[in-house]
Amino acid sequence: MTVYMPLHDEIQRFGLELYAVGRAPRLPVLSVETSLFDRIRVAQAVDEQLSKWRHRADERDSGLYSVVDGIVRFRGRLWVPAGIKRDIARFVSECLTCQQVKAEHQRPAGLLKPLPIPKWKWDNITMDFVVGLPRTVRGSNSIWVIVDHLTKSAHFLPVGRISL
Question: Rounded distance, CA 102 to CA 109, Å?
Fold first, then answer.
């Protein structure tokens, strides 16, 4: 079996292990399994603070903590001990794909609040300018846009001699 050494080095750098299954000559298949969940499971088992929190939560039957596949979750989210958080942060900082993905780091905005409905026409308006247009025969190079919120009607007025 020929091993491409740079790939082998990368696999070892990520803490992965390669092993062959069976002896029949077949097309090689690379199967990647992470040991991250095993490491989290072991770290959670020896974490004293987590065991205290779980014990308190079990006494109150609050449902904050749950165990799925031997891994403790807090409010449905994976609870990761501090030592492993450092390893994950280091991996993400070195991973090119992780750097290119722009994850949303803000909470959802929640429910939208409707705008108040105006009582009269032209009571609530918005105005804007469209600039940078070619000059017309009359010398206008911009448009002044006025929109009424109640009737959704708009006026487009040519405006001349606005320069940027």
Answer: 18
What's the Cα-to-Cα distance from 118 to each of 114, 124, 152, rounded to whole Å? 12, 6, 11
Residue with tokens 């942060």: 89
Query: How far apart are the C-alpha atoms of 41 and 70, rounded to whole Å?
Result: 7
Tens digits of residue pLDDT in 60-79: 666 677 777 777 777 777 77
Encoding tokens for residue 27?
């097309």
Give the count of beta carbons closer than 10 Å to the beta carbon of residue 51: 13
Residues 6+ apart with CB under 8 A from 36: 84, 88
DSSP 150: T
Quote the CA–CA distance of 37 and 2 in Å, as a whole number. Answer: 30
pTM recorded for the entire structure: 0.38
End-to-end distance of the chain based on CA atoms, in angstroms?
A: 69
Best-predicted range by mean pLDDT (21-30, 60-69, 138-147): 138-147
Residue 45 pairs in a beta bridge with none
Residue that has been written with the tokens 């290119």 in this structure: 100
Q: Which residue has the higher pLDDT, 88 or 18?
A: 88
